[in-house]
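Purpose: get a first structural picture of the assembly so the mutagenesis plan has something to point at.
Setup: two entries, given in the order below. No constraints added.
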Amino acid sequence: MKAELIAVGTEILLGDIVNTDAQLISRGLSELGIDVYYQTVVGDNPDRLRHVVETARDRADIIITTGGLGPTLDDLTKETLAAVFGQTMALHQPSLDRIKGFFQSIHRPMTPNNEKQAWLPAGCTVFVNEWGTAPGCAFEAAGKHVLMLPGPPRECDPMWQQCAMPYLRALAGGCIVSRNVRVFGLGESNMEAILHDMMQNSTNPTIAPYAKTSECYARVTAKADTPAACEALLAPVVDEICALLGADVYGVDVDSLEQVVGDGLRQRGLTLAVAESCTGGLLSKRITDVPGCSDYYLGGVCSYANAVKTGVLGVQQHTLDTVGAVSPEVAEQMAAGVARALGADVGVGITGIAGPGGGTADKPVGLVYISVWYAGQHFTRRMRSVNGRDRVRMQAASTALDLIRRNVFEQK
Amino acid sequence: MKAELIAVGTEILLGDIVNTDAQLISRGLSELGIDVYYQTVVGDNPDRLRHVVETARDRADIIITTGGLGPTLDDLTKETLAAVFGQTMALHQPSLDRIKGFFQSIHRPMTPNNEKQAWLPAGCTVFVNEWGTAPGCAFEAAGKHVLMLPGPPRECDPMWQQCAMPYLRALAGGCIVSRNVRVFGLGESNMEAILHDMMQNSTNPTIAPYAKTSECYARVTAKADTPAACEALLAPVVDEICALLGADVYGVDVDSLEQVVGDGLRQRGLTLAVAESCTGGLLSKRITDVPGCSDYYLGGVCSYANAVKTGVLGVQQHTLDTVGAVSPEVAEQMAAGVARALGADVGVGITGIAGPGGGTADKPVGLVYISVWYAGQHFTRRMRSVNGRDRVRMQAASTALDLIRRNVFEQK
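Result (structure tokens, whole complex):
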């Protein structure tokens, strides 16, 4: 089967945003074994959208649109697709109730234009949107499958995974199962070099390397008639990858480093507190991205000013005066200090220069010291990144989590 | 003039990479006042590429391709475009010399397939590639302009800026200027309802509404012969929008709420400290996303555990026992407490239930209290969001910044 992607949004044509939805969906279609020959972006213009849809209809089995489902005048995707495929529109009462409920819950009046979001092609499969107000939908007409998803990635991403992928999987037949081997401490190209021979010789399951900010993963995908048959194909390959990559593998099919660290702390009955300077709260934010983190996370201190390092965390003024705030000594005092101040079993300290300003010859932009304190011991790492403020901070926060995983958990 | 973008690369159709070249080029074309109605992605397949190019030729004045200029067999962009436009190919000796020189400089033999990169449409304008081996080029045929650039962003980006933009600037004439009116406290549909009549009646400048997480903006775009003429068209429209939207406008052409708040604090010589419970460090992270924030930001405390609220921030146990941690009283004590503990002029307290667990009938998931303490006064807001953990936290952090903007800055 062939699918074609159509993104509807003038903001993409103006270059205001990049079409990440296309990547998400293309990758998913690739996993499902559905070919994509064309992706198109068109603006919020009914004539041009109609033209693009007609072209896609003539060359693809599946048309997937993103964007243009919202309440405003220039949101025209549903109306245009319905017209091309001769569908009538109907009010979908459950969706309207949902939208009304949303506005009630935030104590705001629902403007009349919001009702438009609940008008969908009659008889379609509705994709409930739990991440925004505009539902998505799917219908079949003239032997073609049409799927429509909202444009904002925070809505499109979960709806693709949870609504559209299962819908398409049912069409595609057979079964596809993937495992993600998550890695920290090894770059993508190094990982690929280690896995090169395996990758070359693998057809089912396939092995594909991916990079994420400051980490990477290997995705192993098997196709078979049943989930059990997929699992049987996957297990030995995943085991071999884990053996080749060793301690740099932090988990298989886990969500994130913060999830793995949280689970490990909970299992061991340990509590955590963090002290951050250059990461400015990012590590604390990531730890608290995980629901239920109050089981093990007590809290954190962002000590941007040195007075907070000394006053709240007990970093010694003498240390700041002699070796400076960006030093292993200060990272260690922050880690032990925040554990003491908040009464935690494990403490983290991060101090560095995120940039773009503030660097010197001795202490350049991108230099960060990260320390974990646990049971009277310090585990400290020096890190240097040259990839800009956001990535320096992200990598420093990941390194802190990785230090906990490698040292606190391995000790038990 | 109308331009159309064609990206050539199977790796985009597989979702291995995202088409950032399209954003780069679209943004540049927007600046040049050249309309983009379509972007297309097609794989390394000569028939499909030819089809896409023929379609583009019939509806655009300018065709810009990215990708497919390399040495391998599936790099077919130049050959296909030349064929569609009836151009012959010719060896471009300076490009061949350049490629040979590159291989000499890295002490590697040049494989014969690399010579292919020096074959270009006869008589074209050559875009020298100083960032890789494959040159780009431009030619005019049948009244259309064709430009070809390499695909890798590290090559495409500088060649777009330094070769293609100047080439097009000479063709385009005129100019386009946009203003973004940034809004917090009003949903996109409400904003559009207020601006509806203006939007309907506007052709130059145009007005378009956009939504971002927990905020929205109106983009006003004018076309004219000169930047000054664009400005003259924009100014009265932007003023009218600001007047209609009132205090919900937090800035025009500003980066973010955190930037506006940071600038306001710096101008007034005020310092800031924040205490976060459910946002878990997100507000602190956003404040420190802004380079130079150490001018006004002292730091923060993430008081996830109640013991941290009492111990570090001085929240009263009695208050926690009687009204609970999620209450306006605790938000206010956190705000005043963190300002006192860190010695800041302005304090923020955030307490709430981000979910998915932890809600009750009285205090449902998504309920957050946010308080700003300044000069002995509390400014406190109750917020309720039903959009999931991430957006609850994002909106709570934005609300805190908005409270500072509206109350601390307006007092002066």
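Chain A has a mean pLDDT of 93.
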